[in-house]
């Protein structure tokens, strides 16, 4: 699946610490389904529940979720917002935890059959839906713990050149 590759790359580039330690990001497809139509067409659609495991994360949950939501808005905007993302977390210490995120992805595959040549051409479709009202090439995520704090603190940053 191309979408899962794109999502994984985005998370590695966006979540602090993952670029230098990519083995902490695990991705799984559990019980994916393939929708196809009877007949000569081999075009189909993958529907996959993706499980993303982030081990030993040190930092705010927002440093993971905001880049994930940004990616989903661009590549999977048709998800039901109330059911799109679920997660489990295990607190390992005061500053470290494991996180398991589940998200449903779909990906269309167009297969063109040339019977005379005995050739099948397959193309994974991963349309991109522009979401950014401002086309920034670099993003910074700032957070403030409470409203009483005056300043926001930089907690993550990434490029948007996917």
* Main sheet summary: 6 strands, antiparallel
Radius of gyration: 19 Å
Report the uncertain regions: none
Query: Strand fraction band?
Result: 35-45%
pLDDT averaged over residues: 88
Q: How many DSSP E strands?
A: 8
| N-to-C CA distance | 16 Å
The secondary-structure element order is HEEEHEEEEE
Apparent shape: elongated
Structural class: alpha+beta
Helix content: 10-25%
The helix tally amounts to 2
Short description:
With 162 residues, the chain is of the alpha+beta class. It has two helices and eight strands; from the N terminus they run αβββαβββββ.
How would you characterize this protein structure?
This protein has helices at residues 2-14, 62-75, and strands at residues 25-29, 33-36, 44-57, 85-91, 97-114, 119-125, 138-143, 153-159. The protein is α+β, with helices and mostly antiparallel strands. Strands 1, 2, 3, 4, 5 and 6 form a six-stranded antiparallel beta sheet that branches. It starts with a helix and ends with a strand.
Q: Which secondary structure elements does this structure contain, and how are they paired or packed?
A:
Blueprint: H1 2-14, E1 25-29, E2 33-36, E3 44-57, H2 62-75, E4 85-91, E5 97-114, E6 119-125, E7 138-143, E8 153-159
Antiparallel strand pairs: 1-3, 2-3, 3-5, 4-5, 5-6, 7-8
Helix pairs in contact: 1-2
């Amino acid at each position: 699946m191309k979408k899962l590759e794109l999502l994984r790359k985005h998370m590695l580039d966006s979540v602090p610490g993952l670029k230098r330690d990519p083995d902490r990001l695990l991705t799984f497809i559990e019980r994916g389904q393939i929708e196809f139509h009877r007949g000569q067409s081999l075009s189909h659609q993958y529907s996959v529940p993706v499980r993303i495991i982030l081990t030993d994360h040190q930092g705010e949950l927002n440093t993971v979720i905001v880049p994930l939501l940004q990616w989903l808005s661009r590549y999977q905007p048709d998800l039901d917002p109330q059911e799109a993302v679920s997660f489990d977390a295990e607190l390992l210490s005061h500053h470290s935890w494991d996180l398991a995120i589940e998200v449903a992805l779909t990906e269309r595959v167009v297969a063109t059959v040339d019977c005379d040549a005995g050739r099948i051409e397959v193309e994974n479709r991963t349309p991109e839906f522009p979401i950014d009202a401002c086309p920034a090439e670099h993003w910074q995520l700032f957070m403030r713990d409470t409203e009483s704090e005056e300043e926001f603190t930089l907690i993550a940053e990434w490029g948007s050149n996917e």
